[in-house]
Amino acid sequence: MSTAIDSSSLFSRNLHKKYPVALRGEGSWIVDSDGRRYLDASGQAAVVSIGHGVHEIGRAMAEQANRIAFAHTSQFHSEPAEALAARILAIAPGTFHSGGRVYFTSGGSEATETAIKLVRQYFLETKQPSRYRIVSRKQSYHGSTLGAMSVSGNVGRRAPYAPLLPEWGHVAPCFCYHCPFNKAYPECNLACADDLEAFLHANDPSTVAAFIFEPVVGATLGAVPAVDGYTARITQICRKHGILLIADEVMTGMGRTGKPFASVHWGLEPDIILTGKGIASGYAPLGAVLVAPHVAEAFEKGTAAFLHGFTYQAHPVATTAGNAVFDYLEAHKLFERVTPAGETLRKALSALESHPQVGQVRGLGLLQGVEFVKNKSTREPFPKEAGIAEKIRQAALEKNVLTYPSQGTVDGTRGDHILLAPPFIITPQECQLIGGALQFALSKVFSS
Ligand SMILES: Cc1ncc(COP(=O)(O)O)c(C=O)c1O
Questions:
Q1: What residue's CA is closest to ligand 1, atom 16?
Q2: What pLDDT is attached to residue 5?
Q3: How many CB atoms lie within 10 A of CB 163?
Q4: Do 368 and 344 meet the contact criterion of CB atoms below 8 Å apart?
Q5: pLDDT tens figures, 109-140
Q6: List of E strands, 348-400
Q7: Tens digit of pLDDT for each residue in 351-361?
Q8: CB atoms within 10 A of CB 365
Q9: Cα distance between residue 292 and residue 95, in whole Å
Q10: Of these four, 14, 45, 214, 243, which has the most CB atoms within 10 Å of its CB?
Q11: Taking the mean position of all CA atoms in its chain, how far away is CA 360?
Q12: Which atom of ligand 1 is nearest to the CA of 249?
């Protein structure tokens, strides 16, 4: 990339790579210091919802910073945090509306970390001290801190830290395209959901505190939604065993899939919902843990004091950004825009589907994935060394389109996909550019 600076004092994500310098953003575009314009087809990492460069967000943040930038949550609440908490609860599933609570963090990993500790303390408050394990799924991602990594099932991201991570149990993902049981939906009778029951049968369920899952698996699988019936079965199993249910909606929350929370697609009412990313559309680091009334009540009736905290939790400027983004989403009816815009994007991608190396185009709303396969009929993936997802990313970049590539789609090692999660304001013309760039990428990467 031509605009990279040659030496950097930053501990970059990859010290061998040269990064262009992002100078400004306009709508769905990022402009670098050479003036090159990139179409942000992945909203960076499914973060940007209202688009880049919306001046009223910056103005609102500056006004708040000038009024009061910071007050520690051990001593004060702030107006923007109070307002944003109430607004988020109002668009959450019904059970959160009356008596729900929100714990703001500075991102998704902190939200997962907070939820892990919150459920542990919940079981202390309710006099069930044997419960501590958080069961999760293989092929999932819940964040990069050690607690969040422990529950993540993303093989590649976990591997170097394996000695540091407790193993609480990972059950099968809900992933029909590469079903871990080699079954087909609906004849499978939701074998993947029943894997949780099987796990609880084999492991003492009285040690299990919660089950965490992504209703639509984002980074790890490339936009794979749960099939109908899955979340209901999971809920049933959790309730039967007295286990709390955590929906990780860090990527899918705040409208990304066409509903305020993806849980709403299936009438799912988790005990805890995590969100982040789109909550402030990238204008500030912000995440949130939504706590259902009965969980908060256990604390109120118990010690009342959650033994956890971050200096910057519920930061006034970050929550002001969240409110300003919320205002913008409402004023421009952007939640309503996601489903039709997602359909337009899907149409623009439809020409890819006939390509022999495109296994599946999938997703919900504006969270979509394209999986690449070596053999379309057997769904056999490419070997890891072929680096297909990264090659596709690079080729699409030649057309100035930014995508989010990942490997390990099938089993944590093999498999390639790219994730698309453009801002909710993406236009039909921009969807065409995305489709065209991917067509170009396919012909370039698979030309021989
Ligand atoms: C589902 C999910 N949970 C948690 C996280 C971690 O969020 P963050 O990177 O903001 O810490 C991510 C990030 O991609 C995510 O997709």
A1: 251
A2: 54
A3: 5
A4: no
A5: 999 999 999 999 999 999 999 999 999 999 99
A6: 358-364, 367-372
A7: 999 999 999 99
A8: 28
A9: 7
A10: 214
A11: 20
A12: 1
Residue located via tokens 């057309």: 399
Ligand 1 binding residues, C-beta < 6 A = 45, 107-109, 112, 141-143, 214, 218-219, 248, 250-251, 276, 287
pTM: 0.97
Q: What's the first-to-final CA gap in the chain, in angstroms? A: 25
| Tokens encoding 274 | 């995590």
User: Cα-atom radius of gyration of the chain, to the nearest Å?
Assistant: 22
Lookup: tokens for 121:
């303390």
CA distances from 150 to 157, 164, 167, 228 (A): 11, 9, 7, 28
Dist. CA 380–CA 375, nearest whole Å: 5
Report residue 348 as tokens: 């623009």
Token look-up 């309710």 returns 126
Residue type, 73: T
Distance 248 CA to ligand 1 centre (A): 9
**Cα–Cα distance, 317 to 78 (Å, whole number):** 10
Q: Coil, helix or strand for 442?
A: helix
Q: What are the distances in angstroms from CA 304 to CA 77, 124, 377?
A: 16, 12, 57
Residue 110 CA, chain-centre distance (Å), reads 13
| Gap from CA of 157 to ligand 1 centroid (Å) | 12
- Strand ranges of the sheet holding 133-137, from the earlier edge strand across to the other edge: 101-105, 287-291, 272-275, 244-249, 208-213, 133-137, 170-171
Which stretches of 40-107 are DSSP H helices? 43-46, 55-67, 79-91
Q: Report CA(103)–ligand 1 centroid distance (Å).
A: 16
Beta strands in 365-411 (DSSP E): 367-372, 401-402, 404-407
Question: Is the distance from CB of 106 to CB of 286 less than 8 angstroms?
Answer: yes
Atom 9, ligand 1: which residue's CA is nearest? 108
Nearest-angstrom CA–CA distance, 209 and 19: 42
Residue 99 confidence class, pLDDT cut points 50, 70, 90: very high
Long-range pairs of 154-159 with CB within 8 A, sequence gap ≥ 24: 154/219, 154/220, 154/408, 154/412, 155/408, 155/411, 155/412, 155/413, 156/407, 156/408, 156/412, 156/413
Q: What is the mean pLDDT of residues 248-252?
A: 98
Would you say how long the chain is, in residues?
448
